[in-house]
Amino acid sequence: MTDTRWTIRLDGTTLPEKSLIGGKAWSIARMRGLGLPVPPAFVITTQACLAFLEHGAFPEGLVEEIHAGLLWLNEQTGRVFGGSEKPLLLSVRSGAAISMPGMMDTVLNLGMNDAAEVALAAETGLPDFAHDTHRRFLELYAAIVLKSPVELAPGDKAAAWRAHLAVPETPRECLTGAVRAVFESWNTRRAKRYRDHNNIAHDLGTAVTIQAMVFGNLDERSGTGVVFSRNPLTGARLPYGEYLPRAQGEDVVSGKFTPLALEAMHDLDPAAYEALMHATEQLEQEHGDMQDIEFTVQSGTLYLLQSRSAKRAPDAAVRTAVEMVNEGMIDVDKALTRVSAEQVKSLLLPRLVNGAAEAGQIVAQGEGACPGVATGVVVTDPDEAERRAARGEAIILLRATTSPDDIHGMIAARAVVTEQGGSTSHAAVVSRALGRPCVVGIGAGTALLPGAIATVDGATGIVYAGALAVEIPDERGDPLLSKLIAWAGERSRVQVIRPGDAGGISDYVDVDEPLAAGDMDILPGLLKGAGVARGLALANPETARIAQAQGVHTIVTEPVLPALLAVLGEAA
């Protein structure tokens, strides 16, 4: 292979560090190394991104390396980027080392122009497909690169579209613009807020994966979808996902279309479905973790585009961790890293009491995308949600569909509800990452109105009028949580016990009363030098971590598992 500084070909012969090529490119290299069907690709490294962000221009040599990478893709595909016959179209996708779903930018179908449309129409005999692909490229390029979002009417002529949007004439110019846009998306407001919320460093940069396009919108035997190797809501060991016939990936993640259940793919194309199931099982075994896999079917042939560890709801995190130990896939230490203190805390938050749902008035119903129950006032604007939550209000964010620009409102909200989309839409994926109850696809024109108080049940997909009665779960009554308590207790250097089991302890610092005013800043001084700390506030993972940092060796609180996992994680 030719020596390069800024780009790497993802041919499966090597597996570079994720920090250099990002998670997306790493998964492509891994899947190609396993012999799975993946369109060829090369990657521009995170180092090139950081150099660009520092100097505001491509680093020396990058343009030449991109050209060499395009020639390699031409050889791999038998097509020609910018060619007037058998044109090669590209997907240009961001990819950080740590997954940031939906936070950065992607441009599909790059290389499309008037000549490419004519060539694709002649090659496939499907002029409608070629025209649709041209429209898709222009809409994405206008939104991502030109920052001028448009919706183009399918019947309009492409030449009028391009003239109106001032899209560069040549595919090479378009590619340069797309790469710049992906680099710049690293520092967008939404990306920075996501990193702040998830404690991701700001100096990592994003890679740019340049991959040969395959077309889920080609014909009746084409489509696109997402499959999870296990159910990301419950953890059940059954493939779970969605499939959208005659579509491209952006149609699924945008939430603008409601896809079919994955089982529909089996009926439409059983051979592609069976190939997907085989690949899904292989990838879970290889990674030893639940996988989130993006795929496209082109004329009955399956292509895998990405595989990554799946974001999962708290119920699924607990079940998957324990069951994978039982299956011999991972050990106990690994399982304890798969469940966060914050996830367990959310599981032990209030839930609807028996009978409350039956007595409640349903104002909207859709698909449950992340379990949990939350009550609050309905707000439709993410900025308003952030402002009102900062004042202490409980907020339910209602949107037609969410986009990466809504992340600050989703962080502020207690729950998220969308009118459109399915369980792999942006709203669903990000809500699971945040641990927010989420209901998607309730439809427009429901009785759920801004300003009303509502209760959202993210497990059933139902939204109720008013505040319904709730109860607090008992961790001791759950066999999976009990198993985690036993495992964590054996490994933690800080003992965490319930108040009912602490009868012999009299010398302790009680944190509940001093913290009643909500001033966390006093806690380190309060606990410094204390051996034992007591209080229900210590069930909060953040509080438990402060106690451990001050040298506390015994915490008396309830529930115990969030505190146990918090101190165990800090010790690790």
Automatic annotation (TrEMBL):
Transmembrane segments: none annotated. PROSITE patterns: PEP_ENZYMES_PHOS_SITE (PS00370). Keywords: Kinase, Pyruvate, Transferase. PANTHER family: PHOSPHOENOLPYRUVATE DIKINASE-RELATED (PTHR22931), PYRUVATE, PHOSPHATE DIKINASE 1, CHLOROPLASTIC (PTHR22931:SF9). InterPro entries: ATP_grasp_subdomain_1, PEP-util_enz_mobile_dom, PEP_util_AS, Phosphohistidine_dom_sf, PPDK_AMP/ATP-bd, Pyruvate_phosphate_dikinase. The keyword Transferase applies. It is an enzyme of class 2 (transferase). Residues 56-259, 267-327 form the Pyruvate phosphate dikinase AMP/ATP-binding domain. It holds the Pfam family PEP-utilizers. Coiled coil: none annotated. This is Pyruvate,orthophosphate dikinase. GO terms for molecular function: ATP binding; kinase activity; pyruvate, phosphate dikinase activity.
